[in-house]
Sequence to fold (731 residues):
Amino acid sequence: MAIRFDREAGTFTLHTKNSTYQMKVDENKVLLHTYFGALTDESDYSYLIVPDDHGFCAQPAGAGGDRRYSLDFYPQEYAVHGNGDFRVKALKARLVGKVPALDLRYESHRILEGKYTLPGLPHAWAEDGDAVQTLEIVLRDLYEEVYVTLLYGVYEEENLITRAAVIENRGDTALEVGRAMSLCLDFPEGEKDLVNFYGKHAGERQPERRTLGHGITEIASGRGTSSHQHNPFVILCDRDTTEESGACMAVSLLYSGSFQIQAEVDQFDSVRLVCGINDEDFCWTLSKGETFVTPEALISYADDGLGALTRGLQRAMYRRLIRSPWKDQRRPTLVNNWEATYFDFTGEKLLAIARQAARIGLDMLVLDDGWFGKRNDDNSGLGDWYVNEEKLGCTLGSLVQQVNDLGLKFGIWIEPEMVSEDSDLYREHPDWAMTIPGRDPVRGRNQLTLDLSRREVIAYMKDSIDALLDSANIAYIKWDMNRSVDNVFSAANPELSQGAVRHKYVLGLYEVMEHILEKHPDLLIEGCSGGGGRFDAGMLYYVPQIWCSDNTDAIERLWIHHGTSYGYPMSAVAAHVSVCPNHQNGRVTPFKTRGICAMQGSFGYELDLGKLTEEELQEAGEQIALYNANYDLFQRGDYYRLSSPAENGDFTAWSYVMPDGSRASLSVVYTDLHGNPKPHRIKWKGLIPDAHYLVDGRAYTGAALMHGGFVLPRPECNYDSYMAVAEKVEE
Ligand code: DGJ
Fold:
């Protein structure tokens, strides 16, 4: 049993294969958090809480005169505003016209087989009979009919615990929720490091590690999307934790909108971590009988370093979060015309690219931005999702047919959440765009955001995407979103708080995606937001892959892929070979290196194949064959970061290893050159020590490759690279 309740002690103990999580209902019926860490027994860990009469630490109702009991320093499971806890809170709500406070106490609980679901929100899932359990703990306000149900999903095998909270108002007075976090985690001892993933457009998810100091550290997005700038994923670890050793835990929020993660080190050096929807301008009113459901958060623990933690999380997300049937199927290798033509294409130009694609063994042509409405640059046309036949020189159906006749699938780009002011849609429904009446709108890429809090806008989006998908044999869509959301105002509901509109927008987006997947179950969707501006675990519930960054330079991608790998499966990373000099930074890299780097994820090309030399075309054909031959390894293998671009200036190396150790790849990109160079050696990981492996025709034991190491070939030019596959020899 993964979840145990000890009636006498009042403890709930949750076990995964490598971790234990414990809560306790204390004598005041407060739900305390008593343990989260390495797998341990079911002792009552509340002995670690030391009651004391600390100055300026108040007592909640019922604690009477015991000045040694205070929620100002007791570790709590779901801390609320207004009962003497002055740290960052999980929940802040007020009963309109009454006191702005809640005081939640334990009411009841249930332990259920299987995993709870969160209708309308992304969530980890389980199938009947899977070793997954759910714990529901109901808390109730001491005075009012306000209930909070804390939900826990325990995936023993995957070392994964999920959390969410449901807030319910059963009383007559309206409840205004100003903050409702998905998770609150208290640790009695501080001295922790926080690793977060910051970035920018074309430079996403750069890991940054800091020692948590006193006060509040916040990682957040208020942009309406999870954003390029910060990612809703963090790691909390001991100060001496490394890639290979030490305790660490990952927290990932399944949410694609504005989020907030706060870590506070308090007066007694305890650490509290909360994460959930960003509470900036957030106010959600619950009338009698209404509920508010927070997004889900995933937590995962490892006591053997960041590498093991992230491999475990990648596996758990792959198995339990991504649900597209394309997850396990061979996804098409593709050529996308964006960097090949930008807006300047015709049907004939596209077909020329498609012919070359078929010749070198690619599976799909993706038609990017510019095929619809009046759209010859990025100032017009968004919202008008009907094909520009004049530009293509034929109907979409006919173009797709010609591409299919070449033996290729066809994919298409859309950006359904947006509208251009110069579009038929805007002319017809100007109030569907989010703007503030009487003010010049804040524009991003000269476009406005549709108000997805409105039913008619959601209906329009569903209908226009359905019509597009029904009009031709479309196997894939790239779902883009190219601005930060501002001027958050719904003309249909001016009373709604900005935070509420932002959240409704995300719910609307999820509803449309759910609809599309239900109606078109075989469709492969690639997520995108100007590259990786919405690369989050919430999105992965709907799409198995996401365009990782608009930066296609192989060397900058080393950093972006490295950072992304901490929080997400590499099979979700879409990566393409593009031209040189690179369009984003002008860098020149060998064709081979661009291929090796793009093979880290879901592989493709983003250049005019017609402009490649015969030699390059042949090399591309070989890259595609190599990728296909090792597809299982790249899609299902365990990913090892063998070196970090931030720490090793000479090369970056990574490896995939089949879970049974039968096969492994090693990829290396040299990032610097030296006169009279020293030899470079690298240690493989994850192999079977006493098995024999063939690498480049020479036999090694797994132990030799892992402990002795492997001598890398000398680089022959700037940004040279090397890739090898170790094949286990059947003895
Ligand atoms: C941003 C995407 O990230 C690019 O790949 C491309 O699709 C453009 N948008 C098209 O406008």
Remarks:
- Residues 413 and 669 are 31 Å apart (CA to CA).
- The mean pLDDT is 97.
- Residues 3-320 form a domain with the Beta-galactosidase; Chain A, domain 5 fold (CATH 2.70.98.60).
